[in-house]
Every structure is written in structure tokens, then in C-alpha cells.
Amino acid sequence: MQESETLSTEARPPTLTAQIQDYWDQRAQGYTLATRISYVDDGYTMKAIGHFINLNRHMRVADMGTGCGLMAMWMASLGHDVTAVDNSSAMLAEARKNARDAGLEIDFVAGDMENPGLEPGSFDLVVAKSSVWCLQHPAIAYANWVDLLKPGGHLIVVDGNYYLDLYDEDYRKRKEYFDMKDGRETGLHYRTNVNHVDTNIIRELSKQLPLTRERRPTWDVEALLGLGMTDIHVKSLDKVHYSTLTESGLVKIPVTFIVVAQKPYSDMTPHDAAVFEPPIDDDLIPGVTERIRNSGDMELGILKALADQKRMDILRALESGRMSTTQLSKAVSASPSLVSHNLSILREQGIVVSERDGKEVIHRIGNPYALETLMEICGVIVCGKPGTDERRLEPKYC
Fold first, then answer.
1. Is residue 353 a contact partner of residue 366, using CB atoms and an 8 Å limit?
2. Is residue 397's pLDDT more than 50?
3. DSSP secondary structure letters along 169-202
4. Average model confidence (pLDDT) for the chain?
5. How far is CA 156 from CA 52, 131, 151, 220, 232, in A?
């Protein structure tokens, strides 16, 4: 009986976790090549993240599912203290080598990213790039990651609707359209699959994963709201957007996206938290000096562009939507030539983008979220002044 039980145990197939881990171990050599290419050439993801949170202040960062270390390396290169978690020993070996070659110090940890076992409430930022989709219990992972954050900390998820085509007819049509248009094997990870690992392995395994059946980032937003996260923002990373007609109207289904969410402060506003945050350590001053040196006159140029009431009126008008020069002239009660002059200054700083639409040139705000954030900061500063009419300002945090 004992021998029979032993044979039965040995005959058991590997768990889903073990099969997924084995697949990523096989892909490690190709992924490290893709990581090295992306680390140098792909700044778009970090730029998109920088639209939502301040990456220039010193932070403790936890990278969940680091793979060969791409996100961890990006964060460490900005001067942050990074702890990176993954359960693939082959991926971690490559990640350590990549970080060492880049001259970066990162604490790589072999562990379960769904339950990483790190100190709760000790991180300013938790990031997860291209890893949530292959979790067996993503809701549990989100809950554990939120617990790692300090009040006011952020969770950033960079992910995609990988293998949604297996279950979603609309998404399958999207995939077939772009496969026919661009070719099936044109992506970076296809080109760097140096060991020719069969990608159908992970496609079959994904059928057992819960997020393969969910349209995202809708699922992520709902899950994070349920965990009490606030200030949630979503951005598609697709270069070409695809919409499908549903009973509710046109719906965009992104391939890749970013979700940014903030853990709420207990009884503090963000302004109060900044006031009571302890001063930085002296050993961080050289990094601050280097950042000031590298920034040059960029910030000064932007502030000069905004230091004019007529230009601020133009931006307020553009908050309502895209407008032509003639429309702006009427909205701000200024001549077309004056509006054109001010638009030129705003364009030079990337604050406004102008695009030709037929015979007409249409203007829009280059980064609406950044401008909104700047306006909110102005409101927070002003609402602290004695005698301020708060009803007129109505800043978000007053």
C-alpha cells in the first residue's frame, strides 16, 4: 500500500505554478536580451508613469514579477531603493547580471509575488510590469501589494490583455486584424526568442488563468476600488487604438495599458503629508544636486510660458476640448495674431500640441493630466493663504 501511494505521488503532473515557472525559466535567455534593448531604447513607459506620479523624489520601490529586471533597473537608475521579486530562478540570475552590468544596486528576492512576504507599510511604490496577467490569484496579490504601501503610496500596474482572444470574440477580431496588418511575429519578444521556446506552451497554460477571461483594465479598476484605493488613472500604451461596438456603444480594448492607484492617507491630505514628511538624509544631497544640474532650464522655460494671464486663459479654454485659433480668439477675447503668438510659446515647451485637421489647424493640451495636477497644486498653495476665498478657488484638497 505504501509503495502504491509513492508511485501515485510520483505520477502526479506538475502544478500550474510549476509549469508556468518552468516556461519562464526557458524564456530567460531571450528575455534578458529584450530587457537590455528596452532598458536603453524604451523610455515611453517611464515617461507615461511620470505623468501620474513624481519619480524624482527618493522612494522605496517593490517590483513584483521583475523577470530579467527591466522595471527594477529603470527605477534604480532614478536613484530609488528597489526590491525586486520573482519566482523564476533563471530570470533572477539574468536580472542580477543585467543590474550588475548597468552598475545598479538592486535587492533581488526569490519569492512568490502574490504573497511576497515583505514588510507591510514600508514602500512608497509597488510596480508590476507584464506579470499580473499570469497570476493565479490576482485579487489576493493586489490586496497584499496594497498592504506593502505607506499611506499615500502608489501602485503601478503595466500589463495587457494577453490571450484574451481565447475567450473574447471582439478581441479575437482585433488580434486577427492586426496580425494580418502587421504580421504575427513582429514584436520584440518574438525577435529575441533566441532559444526558439514554443510560445504555445504559455498560451495553453493561460487557459487556466483567471484574467485571460477578463477585459482589462476594467477588472483592475474595480478590484482596486474594492481595496479602497483612490486617485485611479488608466492610460493605454497602444500606438494604434481599436474600438469595438457593443450594446453600450464603442468600447476600446487596449493590448497594453498602465493603471496607477494611490493608497489613501488616513487623516492627512497630500499637502499635509508633504509638510510632515521628514527631511531627506544628507547622503542623498549629491543625487539632488545632480538632478538639478541635469534638468537645465527646462522647468524655467515651462514656468515662464505659464506666467502670463492670456496664455493661462488659452489653456483654460483648451481644457474644454480641441479648438482652432479662431475659436480660441473668440473664447479669450484676443486677436488671432496674439493668440497665435502665445500658442507658439506654449508649443515650444510642449504644453500645447497643434495638428492639422483638413485645412484648419487644431490645438490641444499636450498633457491634460499634468496641467490639471499643476492647477491643483496652485490651489493647495493658495488655499493656505490667510484671507483666501476658498469658495472661489475650490481646490481639490482644501
1. yes
2. no
3. HHHHHHHHHHHHHH-SS-SHHHHT-TT---THHH
4. 84
5. 10, 12, 15, 11, 10
